[in-house]
Amino acid sequence: FKGFIDRAPRETDMELKVGSIGGGLKAPPGSGAFLVKNLCLSCDPYMRGRMRDSRASYIPPFVPGQPIEGSGVSKVIDSDDPDFKPGDLVSGLTGWEEYSLVRKTDQLPNQLRKIEQHDVPLSYHLGLLGMPGFTAYVGLHEICSLKQGDTVLVSAASGAVGQLVGQLAKLHGCYVVGSAGSRQKVDLLKSQLGFDDAFVYKEEPDLDAALKRYFPQGIDIYFDNVGGDMLDAALLNMCVGGRIAVCGMVSQHSQTDPQGIHNLFNLISKRIRMQGFLQSDYLHLFPLFFNQVLKYYKQGKITYVEDVAQGLEHAPAAFVGLFSGRNVGKQVIHVANP
Ligand code: NDP
C-alpha cells in the first residue's frame, strides 16, 4: 500500500514488492506468532476505507509502505503458538503477501478460525462461510427480522453479500428482487441464484418507477449495499413497518459530494426500521450461521459464485474492480495451492 487517497482507488495506489521474510520460514521463537503461507485472499469494499487517513473509522487505516491487510485462507508453516501447528489451515486476518507472520492478538475476537471442513472450497471461507456470508445472515435475521412472505429488495445483488441475502430470503419463502450493474449479473441472479426477478439499475432512468414495477405492493425489506439513489427510491416504496438493513454504501465511497437523500421522512410516516450494522458486533452468532449455511450448501440449496483473480500481481486490479462492478460474484485472489 503506497499511501492515503481521497478518491476512487487505482491500481497504482498499490505496488508489488519483492522482499525477504528472513528467518528461513520460521516463526521467531518466543514471539507467540505463527508463519503462514497465504493461499487465497479476500477483496472487500470496506478495505477502501482503510486507504483513507481517518482514525474516525471503525477500523484503523492501512500503514503506508506495508502490505495491505485483509482476510485470507492460509496454511501454517511454522508456529510458536501451541494452538496452531504446521499443516493447519486457517482463515483470519493476514497480509497481501506470499508469507505472513500472524498473531492471535492482532485479530478480532473469533476472527482467526481453523478450517475443519475439507469438502468445501477453501476460498468459501472468505465468502459464503466467511465475513460476507455472515453479513448477509446477520442483516436478514438480526436487523431485518426476516419472515416468510416478505418482499425483499437487495442491491449489489450478485456480489459477495447480496447473492447470499437473496438465496437465504428465498429459502424463507420470500419474494426477492435484486438490482445489479449489468445484464450478465441479472441473468446470473435469475437463472442460477433463484431470484424471482432482477434489473440493471444503470438502465433505469427512474428508479422509483422501476421499484413500483417490481414491488406493486411495496417492499418489506431493503437490504442496502449501495446507499445513494437506490436507497432514496427504496424509501419511497417501503411498506408500513418495513425494515432497511444499512449494510454498505459502495456507491458513496469515493464521492466527494455524496448524493442527497430526499425521502427520509418515509421512515416516520411508514414506521420503517432502518438500521446500520457491523457484522463484527454479532460474532457470537457465527457458529449458528456457519452450520446453517454449510448445511444448505451441502444440501445443494445454496450456490456461491466467485470471481477468482490468479496471482498476487492481479490483486490491485481485482480490488479496484469492486468499485466499477467488474467482479461477478465474490472477488478472491488465488495466491498458492496448499
Ligand atoms: P460486492 O461483491 O457486491 O462488490 C461490490 C459491488 O458493488 C460491485 O460488484 C458493484 O456491483 C457494486 N458497486 C460498485 N460501485 C457501485 C456504485 N457506484 N453504485 C452501485 N453499486 C456499485 O461487495 P460485497 O458483497 O463484499 O459488499 C457489499 C456491500 O456490503 C458493500 O457496501 C460493503 O461495504 C458492505 N459490507 C458491510 C458489512 C457490514 O458489516 N456492515 C460487511 C461486509 C460488507 P454492480 O455491478 O451490481 O453495481
From TrEMBL:
Keywords, ordered alphabetically: Oxidoreductase
TM region(s), chain numbering: none
Protein name according to UniProt: 2-alkenal reductase (NADP(+)-dependent) isoform X3
Domain of life: Eukaryota
Domain Enoyl reductase (ER) stretches: 22-333
SMART domains the record matches: PKS_ER (SM00829)
CDD domains (UniProt xref): double_bond_reductase_like
